[in-house]
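Lab manual, section 2.4: Encoding a predicted structure.

Procedure: take the sequence of the chain (124 residues), apply the prediction step described in section 2.3, and record the output as structure tokens. A sample record is shown.
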Amino acid sequence: MAKWDRTTRQAWEKSVVAQEFEKYILEAAIKLQMLSQAGVNQKAEEVEQSMGEAEESLDSLLDAAGETQLADDQSSEEISEEEHKEAQALMISELKKIGEAAVDLGNIKLAYRIERTIAEISGE
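Recorded output:
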């Protein structure tokens, strides 16, 4: 870049073009900062929502497991094949929701473990 002499630089700094250029650059920087902040806030809200959904899924899964244990304790009768498949489908759907939340949070290791658990339950 060429070095400007003092009078040329002063003339440029006082010119309308330079002032408009500086104003444009500052406005663009402010817009970029606002967009960046909005993106961060939106991502944080999505993560919080995913965590809430994961917690709800885990709670319902634990409730279902507790109810199954309670039912096993109260009666020694065998459950029907249809009830078994319904419970299995419910558990798999809940695990898939938890797995999706883990992926959203970037926890790939947990998501992999959940996928392996789903595969074991479904017999794949």
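Check your result against the sample. The chain is about 85% helix and 0% strand.
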